[in-house]
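Sequence in, structure out. First:
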Amino acid sequence: ENKINSLLKEFTETFPVEVQEKKGARCTKVTGQQASTRSDKKYMRCTRVNGKLKRVHYGDPNLRIKKSNPKRRKSFRARHKCSSAKPGTAKYFSCKNW
């Protein structure tokens, strides 16, 4: 058993193994809007909130944004109370898209 452990230790020292993190598992820098890694959201972005990086997922993947229609735009912004959206939240980025 000792021989196996020493061989295993020697092997791992000779051939270091790098553990790959799951794509999108962590924010390393502030990013723009990109496709979400979650199936229930359309977009994601990494943003800085109170000095820390935060990954925010937002948007319904089954709906299209129709902001070119002024009536829809006004209704969306009123329905979601976009005037009270705090920076760095999903609501904020969703309202920003509209």
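Second:
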Amino acid sequence: NHVAELLDQAVYHVEHLRLGLTDAAAEPAAVTAP
């Protein structure tokens, strides 16, 4: 299911972004970095 793959990828990226934000909370540039 292609939609399921996209959802899995979205969740994966969101989790990594959230972890990155908590690790670099003192780095505002990290919020806009891809």
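Remark: The CA atoms of residues 16 and 22 lie 10 Å apart.
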